[in-house]
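Q: Okay, next protein. This is Protein kinase domain-containing protein from Petrolisthes cinctipes. I've checked the sequence twice, so it should be correct. Can you predict the 3D structure?
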Amino acid sequence: MVLTRSIKGVPRLVAVSLIPPAIIMTMHGPASLVTVCKSKPVDERVLLRTLHDVAGILITMHNMGLSHNDVRPHNILVSDIRCASNLKVTLIDLGLVTRHGEYPFGRVPIFNAKPFYAPELMHVIKPSSEATDMYSFGYLIKCL
């Protein structure tokens, strides 16, 4: 899987098992951004660093012609939230990654869509692109 080898900040593929069916990937960070933000106040420098790192991961994916299509606080793992300089950020859940111009959910409109999905993607008006990921990234900023 080229994606996991060439992008810093996404899990790495370790193994695939047929029996039982499983994909084994590296573990990054003890908690999602949601868990961390709900458990205690987080320094805004740490949040800005987290957003900066997620933006960097997305830029790398976009330069490869790929859209993540599922950017949201639950899909961001963080380690060592106490210190911005030691923070490691990982964007997980690569199940909806597509090439730009593809529809991650097919060409069927989804009417009970989550608020972090771009409306044009959910209503099959436009396919995945940098813009659809940036909509989700904007919603992430709103949530934080």
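A: Here is a summary of the prediction. The chain has five helices and seven strands. The first helix runs from residue 2 to 6.
Q: Noted. On to the next one.
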